[in-house]
């Protein structure tokens, strides 16, 4: 099936309150354009350089979401245009995003990435770290960033029960962290393999790549 068909089919199966981030990493700008022509406007990339290059080539009404690990020294390349950063995992990184956002007179929306998987390789904060960060004076001084929710990735496993429990724990944490000052509307969880479970557990933003664009070829 074409990318356009994949998108139409996919959208039919997700509830209206769920935002679809089409993950275009490793796919060339022409493929992104196919999805754009099928009405998709939100795209996710995990590398700064790749996102910047596509941003420069593609229509300016695209909303670019950074979903991969972000190094502080690279924030400056995307600060003028990035629409949402899913992968904030330290106060140091937030301070840098704030500094770069200020230069462009913007407030940049961010999600805290929470470590929910039972795997060594994933980035993210623990629940306690997230709570501490949000209650710190350093955080409260930052006026050019806005934390709008949480992001998490479940363990890469076939065990549905485990994935479900990991998503449920993130959902619970989000509810716990919400206050009158901190609304945290966004819960980014779920990818091609597990978005259904994620939506059942309260996700309202899913990051889907291969189901829309096909398999990734990292060698290219
Ligand atoms: C690549 C990636 C996705 C999409 O994965 P698919 O399995 O292709 O849907 C989602 N989230 C993050 C953080 C990713 O890096």
Description:
It is a single chain. By secondary structure, this protein is of the alpha/beta class. The protein contains 10 helices and 8 strands. It has an 8-stranded parallel sheet with strand order 7-6-5-4-3-2-1-8. The longest helix is centred in the last third of the chain and has 18 residues, at 160-177. The radius of gyration is 17 Å and the shape is globular. The mean pLDDT is 96. The structure holds pyridoxal-5'-phosphate. The site of pyridoxal-5'-phosphate has 14 residues, from strand 8 and helix 10. Residues 23, 25, 46, 67-68, 153, 191-193, 207-211 line the site of pyridoxal-5'-phosphate (PLP).
Number of separate helices: 10
Low-confidence stretches: none
Instruction: Please state the average pLDDT score.
Output: 96
How large a portion of the residues is in β-strands, by DSSP E? 15-25%
The structure class reads: alpha/beta
Q: Helical amount among residues, as a percent range?
A: 25-40%
Shape: globular
Spatial gap, N to C terminus: 22 Å
